[in-house]
């Protein structure tokens, strides 16, 4: 049963010092624009402007601090894997872990190598194969899982304008060979219940959601707040589940760079090839940084740097 709390609606933060700090971080992070590459394996993402940079911090009492292009919607891509996982655990609980593992892969997010030797059980829910299994779980539970996820993203962010970008969806579909290979391999090992095309469509539609830094910092604040959604005041997931998702983000949210990122930033985080990264400071706040140019692991260069600067200075203030 969800527990209700008074909902602290997101509102502009009231600390000028904190806003000045966020502005300064955004300014310093912009020095990294010009390094990295836009993801070009999804043609619909190629035309993103590499000079864009956005940052949003959302405290657990609903204060929002933003800088740069924080209100610009972008393709959330793998950030959707956090919402998908939350929804799957909420719906089916720990049964999911019979079909997907809990360990870092140490491999690129779209690698197929372990999938063959590990008999179709993906290492974790944040690599593509893992999220495809999670999507399969949801295809069984909801008639239109991506639409359901879109509704959840709207409710959690408080933004009814959150949409699936059909151009990105079509682009991912027509360049699906690698994800389709993973899905067919898992199907062959008996780890996919539904038809491959149906599962892939749901998975791509979730990746194709468009949200802004502001939307994402607000929507994923439940991970910093013991599972309580900021916009509704209700418990979206139980506290222990939020803790476990944070643990998975810490170990696997940044793919083969998870160890590097943990060393430099030390926060649970999840990235997407649209250039967004969400990070969580449990008990305090959620953060989303975005800039489209990526490093070799598929993580945004400027967004990572912004998070590094935030983590360095986090002890300086107490909202
Ligand atoms: O399936 C894909 O490859 C993309 N839709 C999502 C990949 C992604 O965002 C991985 N992130 N770094």
TrEMBL record:
Protein name: Glutaminase
HAMAP family: Glutaminase (MF_00313)
EC number(s) per entry: 3.5.1.2
Record organism: Halomonas beimenensis
Binding site for substrate: 78, 128, 172, 179, 203, 255, 273
Source lineage: Bacteria, Pseudomonadati, Pseudomonadota, Gammaproteobacteria, Oceanospirillales
NCBIfam families, per database record: Gln_ase (TIGR03814), PRK00971.1-1 (NF002132), PRK00971.1-2 (NF002133)
Complex formation: Homotetramer.
Keywords in alphabetical order: Acetylation, Hydrolase
Any single GO BP term: L-glutamine catabolic process
Family stated for the protein in its record: Belongs to the glutaminase family.
Name of encoding gene: glsA
InterPro entries for the chain: Beta-lactam/transpept-like, Glutaminase
């Amino acid at each position: 049963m969800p527990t209700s709390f008074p909902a602290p609606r997101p509102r502009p933060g009231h600390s000028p010092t904190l806003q000045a700090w966020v502005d300064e971080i955004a300014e310093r992070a912009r020095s990294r624009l010009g390094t990295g590459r836009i993801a070009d394996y999804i043609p619909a993402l190629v035309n993103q402007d590499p000079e864009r940079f956005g940052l949003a911090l959302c405290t657990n009492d609903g204060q929002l601090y933003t800088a740069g292009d924080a209100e610009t919607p972008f393709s959330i891509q793998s950030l959707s894997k956090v919402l998908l996982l939350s929804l799957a655990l909420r719906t089916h609980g720990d049964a999911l872990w019979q079909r997907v593992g809990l360990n870092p892969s140490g491999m690129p997010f779209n690698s197929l190598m372990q999938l063959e030797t590990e008999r179709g059980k993906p290492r974790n829910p944040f690599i593509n194969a893992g999220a495809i299994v999670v999507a399969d779980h949801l295809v069984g539970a909801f008639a239109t899982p991506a639409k359901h996820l879109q509704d959840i993203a709207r409710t959690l962010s408080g933004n009814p304008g959150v949409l699936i970008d059909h151009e990105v969806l079509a682009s991912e579909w027509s360049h699906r060979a690698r994800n389709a290979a993973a899905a067919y391999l898992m199907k062959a090992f008996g780890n996919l219940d539904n038809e491959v095309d149906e599962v892939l469509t749901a998975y791509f539609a979730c990746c194709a959601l468009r949200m802004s830094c502001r939307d994402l910092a607000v929507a994923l604040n439940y991970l910093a707040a013991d599972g309580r959604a900021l916009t509704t005041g209700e418990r979206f997931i139980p506290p222990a589940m939020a803790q476990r998702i944070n643990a998975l983000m810490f170990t696997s949210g940044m793919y083969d760079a998870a160890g590097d990122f943990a060393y430099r930033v030390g926060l649970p985080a999840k990235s997407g090839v649209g250039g967004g990264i969400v990070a969580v400071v449990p008990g305090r706040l959620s953060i989303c940084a975005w800039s489209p140019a990526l490093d070799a692991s598929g993580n945004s260069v400027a967004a990572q740097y912004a998070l590094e600067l935030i983590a360095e200075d986090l002890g300086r203030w107490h909202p």
